[in-house]
Design a protein that fits this description.
alpha+beta, globular
């Protein structure tokens, strides 16, 4: 039996040392959902937040095969990203999903508060091309972005603007009254945000991601927040380094289709 629980303190030790802000968001009860194999003494745990699912503790086939994400992910996503804590969990995922689990490499970026050069970042902001403007994410833009498939991840994890205003932050590059690019919080935790940057296809190769990324970092500095960055690909890692971050290490994840397998039973605690 798998249990959904908000008693995060009992499962928190299973995630010790894992430097992922999405995990912290859930353990702090800001956002995300925690599943465990036991309410009283969990040995295995899974955290689901958005398109990411983190598996920790003792490898558990039932937990790896449970799919609460089937109808909770962004509707324009085809599946989920399973992140194993170690090689034993990776083996369980591969055994559970077989060819349905696509093995991918992601790029972890070091978390180094206080490392950013504000003058360098402001200089980047000042390279905004003519004809574009910068606008902070407000309530009107929040709801507009939820309507736009290409930039929905900027706000999708926040069910309403009140939660976004409290635990989110975003900068949008505008062109002719519509978003052209932006950097926003994929998720939020008590000490900061997880950065999500997207540029609309017809506005790429103009340096807009660099501009809005720099502006978002500056706004986080003003709030005393840390803008965490996790890179999906080498391009994202290179952009992070250009903004002042440092690469940490590669790690393995698995992309699993929403149609893979069948959901199992979960109890609530």
């Amino acid at each position: 039996m798998i249990f959904e629980t908000k008693q995060t303190e009992k499962a928190a030790p299973l995630f010790d040392g894992w430097q992922e802000t999405l995990i912290w968001s859930c353990l702090q009860n800001v956002m995300g959902t925690l599943y465990v194999d036991s309410l009283d003494d969990p040995a295995s745990a899974m955290i689901l937040l958005g398109d990411f699912c983190f598996l920790a503790g003792r490898p558990n086939e039932e937990l790896a095969g449970y799919q609460p994400w089937r109808d909770r992910t962004n509707p324009n996503r085809s599946g989920i990203i399973l992140v194993p804590q170690n090689e034993k969990w990776a083996a369980v995922i591969e055994d559970c999903y077989k060819e349905q689990a696509q093995k991918v490499t992601r790029y972890a970026i070091k978390k180094e508060p206080g490392i950013f050069n504000s003058a360098h970042l402001q200089a980047a902001v000042d390279t905004l091309p003519e004809g574009y403007t910068l606008r902070m994410m407000d309530q009107e833009l929040f709801w507009r972005c939820r309507e736009l498939e290409w930039c929905r991840d900027w706000v999708w994890q926040y069910p309403d603007y009140d939660l976004y205003e409290k635990h989110g932050l975003g900068v949008v590059v505008m062109k002719d009254g519509e978003p052209a690019a932006g950097a926003s919080s994929y998720s939020g935790y008590l000490e900061g945000i997880e950065v999500e940057i997207v540029t609309r296809e017809d506005h790429r190769r103009k340096g807009l991601a660099y501009v809005c990324g720099a502006k978002l970092i500056l706004e986080c500095i003003k709030r005393g927040w840390y803008p965490s960055w996790d890179a999906q690909n080498p391009w994202s890692a290179a952009l992070a380094e250009k903004l002042g971050y440092h690469f940490d290490h590669e790690y393995t994840a698995y992309v699993v289709s929403r149609e893979a397998g069948l959901p199992q039973t979960v109890a609530h605690g």
